[in-house]
Fold this sequence. Notes:
Elements: H1 4-12, E1 26-27, H2 30-40, E2 47-51, H3 57-65, E3 68-73, H4 76-86, E4 91-94, H5 106-112, E5 117-122, H6 125-138, E6 142-150, H7 151-157, H8 168-174, E7 177-185, E8 190-191, E9 198-205, H9 214-225, H10 232-236, H11 257-267
Parallel strand pairs: 2-3, 2-5, 3-4, 5-6
Antiparallel strand pairs: 1-8, 6-9, 7-9
Amino acid sequence: MQTLSDIKALLATRGLEPKHRLGQNFLHDQNKLRALIAHSGVAAGDLVLEVGPGTGTLTEALLDVGCDVVACELDDDMADIIRERLGDRVKLIHGDCLDGKHAVSPAILSAIGGRPFRLVANLPYGAATPLVLNLAAHHANCLGQFVTVQREVAQRLAAVPGSDAYGAATVLLSLTSTVQVLETLPGSCFWPAPRVTSAMMSVVPNPTRPAIDPDRVSTFVHRIFASRRKQLGALLGRSTPFPVGILPSMRAETLSPMQILALMHAVG
């Protein structure tokens, strides 16, 4: 597994430096990298999607386990490093992991080919929330997501009703998945050290998930959280047939995901 010295040398020999605009903070703490793989439960022969492989530290560790790896890298320089070091041992997607903000890259989907897979990655902060939400909502062959993200993102995605962090993203993810914050990672685990704390989290499909139309739910949830402090009666109209247990005087931020789903069906 690459050490911090290895990562710095790989960049220095090419005259490169981490690109702040791309959120390049390389996870180099080997204990945390091993923990991420252990939490994912991947084994030899499993298919893994990694987004933002950088110099390939986690990629190489996944290959050592015996995983088949699809790695998606946006940066030209990092993609060149992956090609030079790993060649055809990894299926490299050179481009954005997202097609806009509402879909996973077609190149990734083509590379996965419908096989069951897990996302295991130190995610670029800008891509984290839309990628996690899209995989959970639209890709049943994603068996789980095990990622490091900004701690505030993890707290928001795992928030409970009534908390400040609870919002549209929380509800959308909770209707499909079980979300858990696994570990906190201080800035010293990364190079260069970010000014924010990170977290390791898991997002695993809920086998008892309700049957939903993700796009319809997303539209409704964003509607009622757009003015989260407003009472539901003011947002939806006092004549709305509110389900039992939901009052017009309540606010969206106090409702559970299942109550929000019931409210959506009531509104029609």
